[in-house]
Amino acid sequence: MYHHNVGGRILAQLDLTSTIQLNNGVAMPRFGLGVWQTDNTTAEASVQAAIRNGYRMIDTAKQYGNEAGVGRGLAAAFADGAVRRQDIFVTSKVANGDQGYRRTLDKFEGTLRRLQLDYLDLYLIHWPVDGQYVETWRALEKLYRDGRVRAIGVSNFDVQRLQVLLRAADVQPAVNQIEFNPLMQEQAMRKFAPAHNITVEGWSPLGGGKALNNPVIALIGQKHGKSVAQVILRYDLQCGIVTIPKTVHEQRMVENARIFDFELDDQDVAAIAGLDQNQHALWYDAFGWYGSDTDFGMATQKWPDSTPDYDA
């Protein structure tokens, strides 16, 4: 069910089953689990733990090197009857080195095989590789028209590149997944995306841990009897941001999801909004992020338990 956001506040009671309607009518959960920097074995266990505790959205990417582990976790959850395939919203992303029309289509098959799925709920261009992302988008449009994916979108696109894509696109992107946390609140994109009916999804909602030490948020947490992390994740929801906190600890998954029994007031929201430093939490600005798969930080992560045919 879509919950209207008025004045920065969610008016309806939310829970882990709450969804937002994308621009093509697909219902996307507002809250899910991210699995970046997680090896296959850990990802498998994390996915099962998340589903066991009510999570209904899992976000991965080929670059993360753990699609196979996520696939095993999903398969186990489906096999034991905990959930059905249609109950879980699964996202993956085109790796930089896989961009281009034909290569994107070819490499998509490997993603489905590793995830042990017949389709994806959402497929994103992971980064806007200059000179390639428009052709990559045409491949995503084909996958969408062929029913291989239920929705398509982008990740880490700035306003300029999203404008270029919108001019070239036949199918409008449904989602832009970007860094969003108290220190990096992406004001320009948060104005641009809704104006074009594009849902904003936030990665690194806890700011790589930096925001967890903020005294302003700590005071708000004390006021509501909540942790700093819970306040931040609640803020995301009240800003209309789909959020995917990453953790491999089951107890923390449970705690992260305990954000539906309180609401930040206008003063709380304004205080957190005032923390924006337009400052990326991680390595985002440290390399030419519109480059190729060989650029710093962009090579597919290899874990000891990677599948031998990972790049197939």
Automatic annotation (TrEMBL):
Keyword NADP belongs to the record: yes
Domain NADP-dependent oxidoreductase residue range list: 31-275
Coiled-coil stretches: none
InterPro entries in the cross-refs: AKR (IPR020471), Aldo/ket_reductase_CS (IPR018170), NAD(P)_OxRdtase_dom_sf (IPR036812), NADP_OxRdtase_dom (IPR023210)
Gene3D superfamilies: NADP-dependent oxidoreductase domain
Positions bound to substrate: H126
Residues flagged as site, Lowers pKa of active site Tyr: K93
Active site: Y64 (proton donor)
Keywords per UniProt: NADP, Oxidoreductase
Single Gene Ontology MF annotation: oxidoreductase activity, acting on the CH-OH group of donors, NAD or NADP as acceptor
Similarity comment: Belongs to the aldo/keto reductase family.
Name used for this protein in its record: Oxidoreductase
Species per Swiss-Prot/TrEMBL record: Lacticaseibacillus pantheris DSM 15945 = JCM 12539 = NBRC 106106
